[in-house]
Amino acid sequence: MKKAAGNRKVKRVMIAIVIVAVVIVALKFILFPPVKEIPVTGKYQVTSEDYWVNEDKADPYSGKDSKRQLQVRRWYPVDCTEEKSVIVASHGSCGTIDNNVSLYRELASHGYTVLAVAHPGQAAWVRYENGRKSGPSMDFLKEMSALKPDEDPEKAYEVFHKWMEIRTDDLNAVMDDWTAKAGASQFIAEGHSLGGSAAYAMARIRNDVVGVIALESPFMYDIKGVENGKFIFDDSDYNVPVLSIYSDASYPHLKEWGQYGNNAKFWDSPNPLYTNIHYENIGHMGLCDLSLVSPVLTAIMDGGFQKVKATDQLTKMNEDCLTWVVNLTDGMLK
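The structure corresponding to this sequence follows.
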């Protein structure tokens, strides 16, 4: 009897283990269904490699005196001898080094080099040169959750200023490192959300940044203070071409949300250097490759499923970005 009871117990445990395994596998396929890469349209084969850039400053999120180290993923065309602008890409809050990987691959297939930067503490994950990995900083997550720009603009300004200092230091380090190794270059700064805010900033900071692509990003760096409860902007014109792309998440609110003051002004500007695009029927995460990799997570973060197929949306956006980059490098946007 005892042996039979023991066998039944073992059988129940095995069944439970199988059920748990099936549930885990099912959840994985629900959250991350198998997807095919969006095919590139350029003539070059594309490959990538990771390298690391060390900054001469303490990492603000490490809690130690350790120096900040950046993981960079270089996407580049194989056997390409053309000299073209280098795109430096910055992910959004809690994004990844592959935030817009289909765009990076598309640009590389047309002869461009893309340097995708992972920002430690502000990324979903980062891998360091010694193999160690880390996720987002709790301090950063707390800052994000407590951020209320319209209710407390003074506190928001402090946070925006801190984030922009961290991001621009990171991007300066990557660009300086590339210039030291490859010689003088022309850079196009690209980013999604917070990364796009940093991309805008680089056009204010560096003379070798010749263009900006920002995917739904407020001009955080241009906020210079708060007066009478309102953000004060440096609203002077940019002197390089700027491509600003929006989804339904922010486009209807550009004139309502205080931190988007410059976005609203530059949308209405007749300046030929500004190109503005609004894609309908998608949310904020529809502007990055998470929408392709995990439609469910995208829907959770955006508050609903987008009405446009991710493959179609990303293909269209990548095509628009490529056309803009080609026109910029060919001098048609000057």
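The radius of gyration is 22 Å.
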